[in-house]
Write a structure and sequence with these properties.
The complex is a heterodimer of chains A (465) and B (181). Chain A contains six helices and 19 strands. By secondary structure, chain A is α+β, with helices and mostly antiparallel strands. Chain A folds into two domains: 271 residues, no CATH class; 83 residues, no CATH class. The radius of gyration of chain B is 18 Å and the shape is elongated. In chain B, helix 2 packs across helix 3, helix 3 crosses helix 4 and helix 6 packs across helix 8. Classes of the chains: A alpha+beta (465), B mainly alpha (181).
């Protein structure tokens, strides 16, 4: 049997005092220890920045769009043909009504949220004349769906609701809603008080693709990215990339007073479709230079209201006006009647241009994700330019859309923050908000407050070979 | 600061916590290192490398499988073993043939010896014997653990310990006879 040394001795061996310089050793150890990585924080910061830029862009876009809608809706009130400044009231329905087939009962609809598909016995409808109608009203499924979807938003669809009963049809209209309708195209609006809830735009876009882009604040960029490693002398990888995509830049013009008579509102999202062939030269594991050629097809959209006035001499039997002493005088004779017609016009400028970018990219990798800050100048040479006006009526004022042409040779500076998620060695998903600053322009800035800054959001699926 | 909290801070590469951890364990681990190395410079080298490994692999420490003391001691011993192999100090074969346990008990005089005196005698043991002796008698490892650490069989570990004790008894007897003369 082994004889262990006793605990006292063991303890004294363990606690033997050796004098040595602990601090000196720590100074030797410390440099060899792995440093605290700040990459996560940096990535988080960049991700937050990306989200912030995206949110700001969306806010800017929404605010601008809301302003346009309000402006358009206000213009609709003036859209009626008027004589001597009088606005026709015939089409403005301000009192909600309940119509019955034989008996017209003006009633206030007081139960907008009544349960659907139920029989309501002894439903009381308080009419303007204090009449109580005892009727069993069976609400139709159409109403049920409509009301369920829209009662909170109070949109145009729920403005008029039809219910059926055995012997009568009742049409409800929401309480406290002022419904403004117009027989004239192109715009119909619905509003509560001064707030425009929805503007229905009847102007047809150029094509479906443009409709898709203008109708969505986010544009999905289905980009194809083909990268082929190229051996370089320094064994640092280079790559060729072929990418195609579409993105939206929101560019806003503010008309100055000189143009405001014709141009009440102008707002131009710039949609750009691009196809680029670029060479990526990796300088290090994090830095790379990107250059090549981009073919860009830009679409600028202009929304504005245009006014036309026609004057004709008519014979008026009687007219009245006030004279200085406030005495009413009736006169008869000829007078000019001026008719003002205001229309909403949408114009498109399309532009085909060749861009030569020179970007520098800084990439940070974290497992499957990477964040890249890409920036640099881009020279654009416009090759082909065309303008379109789109309207529904023939009485449109011709405004030269080319008045807003940007430079034929433009230089801009792009900065983008790209987040890429790598599904595998080939498939990547990328989101890239971008800011573009146009450095020069041929726009007449005395007439138009030209905005040089663009905001873009690009998202794409990358497929590398 | 509680040791678990200190460890978690060290895993997060908090320099302040790492230094606190270092100061907490430095003396004890220096003693361990000294037991397996012949001199202070070697012990310091071993300890320095050990702390770098400790901080680098601290996230792999599983408190369910053992306490932090044993884990750090194992690292130091392992580092000392590697150091010895590098400097080719181990001049005997740890895979020595196992021998039967005999009645070589340590003499009673060992209980009355000072730690320093005993360590001087232990230092005279061959490297392998010394490792097994210290790991079993002082660190409290089982033969299974020693075998795993030194990459030998358990029976070899047992026989090395027996031989170490026999040799140690001879040293003590020899010293006693010198003193009597």
């Amino acid at each position: 049997m082994l004889d262990p040394i006793n605990d006292k001795l063991k303890k004294s061996i363990e606690q033997q005092n050796i004098s040595w310089d602990k601090e000196a050793m720590w100074l030797d150890i410390e440099p060899q220890l792995p440093k605290k990585s700040n990459k996560k924080w940096l990535l988080l910061l960049l991700l937050l920045l990306l989200i912030g830029i995206s949110a700001a862009g969306i806010l800017i876009y929404n605010n601008a769009q809301a302003t346009i809608n309000r402006g358009m809706a206000a213009t609709e009130l003036e859209q009626e043909s008027s004589t001597s400044g009088t606005i026709a009231q015939a089409d403005i329905v301000s009192t909600p009504t309940v119509d019955q087939s034989n008996n017209a009962i003006n009633a206030k609809y007081q139960n907008e949220t009544a349960p659907a598909n139920t029989n309501v016995a002894n439903n009381k409808i308080n009419s303007n004349t204090e009449t109580v109608v005892n009727k069993t009203i069976k609400k139709s499924s159409a109403y049920a769906n409509n009301n369920t979807e829209n009662n909170t938003n109070n949109t145009y669809e729920s403005a008029s609701v039809t219910t059926e009963s055995s012997d009568q049809v009742i049409t409800y209209k929401p309480k406290a809603s002022t419904i403004i309708t117009s027989d004239k195209e192109p715009t119909k609006s619905i509003s509560v008080g001064n707030e425009v809830l929805r503007t229905i735009n009847d102007i047809k876009p150029l094509d479906k693709s443009i409709n898709l882009l203008t109708g969505n604040k986010f544009t999905l960029d289905l980009a194809a990215d083909v990268k082929r490693p190229i051996k370089t002398k320094k064994s640092l990888p280079g790559a060729m990339s072929l990418s195609a995509g579409a993105f939206v830049f929101n560019k806003k013009y503010n008309a100055t007073s000189e143009l405001s008579a014709d141009l009440n509102a102008a707002y131009t999202p710039l949609e750009s479709f691009n196809l680029s062939l670029a060479y990526h030269k990796r300088l290090s594991t994090k830095w790379s230079v990107i250059s090549g050629v981009e073919v860009l097809y830009d679409v600028e959209r202009f929304d504005y209201t245009a006014s036309s006035s026609t004057s004709k001499n008519i014979t008026v039997d009687t007219a009245f006006y006030f004279i200085e002493n406030m005495e009413k005088v009736f006169v008869a004779g000829n007078r000019d009647e001026v008719t003002t017609d205001t229309k909403r016009v949408r114009s498109y400028n399309t532009r085909l241009s060749l861009g030569i970018p020179l970007y520098v990219s800084y990439d940070l990798f974290a497992r499957r994700s990477s964040l890249s800050i890409v920036g640099g100048p881009v020279a654009h040479i416009t090759a082909l330019e065309q303008g379109y006006n789109v309207e529904n009526t023939s009485s449109i004022l011709a405004i030269n859309t080319e008045a807003f042409d940007p430079s034929t040779i433009a230089l801009s500076f792009d900065v983008s923050l790209a987040y890429t998620y790598k599904f595998n060695n080939r498939l990547k998903l990328a989101v890239s908000p971008s800011i573009r600053r146009q450095l020069n322009t041929n726009v007449d800035v005395s007439k138009v407050n030209y905005k040089r800054n663009f905001f873009g959001l690009k998202a794409g699926i990358l497929w590398a070979i | 600061m509680e040791i678990d909290k200190l460890i978690s801070q060290c895993i997060k590469k908090d320099r302040k916590a790492q230094k606190e951890f270092y100061l907490l364990f430095a003396d004890r681990l220096m003693n361990v290192s000294m037991r397996y190395c012949h001199d202070i410079p070697s012990a310091k080298d071993v300890l320095q490398n050990s702390f770098v490994k400790i901080f680098t692999h601290l996230d792999q420490f599983d408190h369910k499988r053992g306490n932090i003391d044993n884990w750090t001691v194992r690292i130091v011993i392992n580092e000392a073993l590697q150091y010895s192999r590098k400097t080719k100090r181990i001049q005997y074969d740890l895979e020595d043939q196992p021998m039967e346990y005999d009645e070589h008990k340590l003499p009673d005089v060992i209980s009355s010896m000072q730690a320093a005196d005993l360590m001087k005698l232990i230092d005279q043991l061959p490297e392998g014997f010394r490792y097994v002796f210290y790991m079993y008698e002082v660190e409290g490892f089982k033969h299974k653990d020693i075998a795993e650490q030194l990459k030998i069989t358990e029976s070899t570990s047992r026989s090395q310990l027996t031989r170490a004790k026999k040799m140690l008894r001879n040293f003590i007897d020899k010293q006693k006879s010198i003193e009597l003369c």
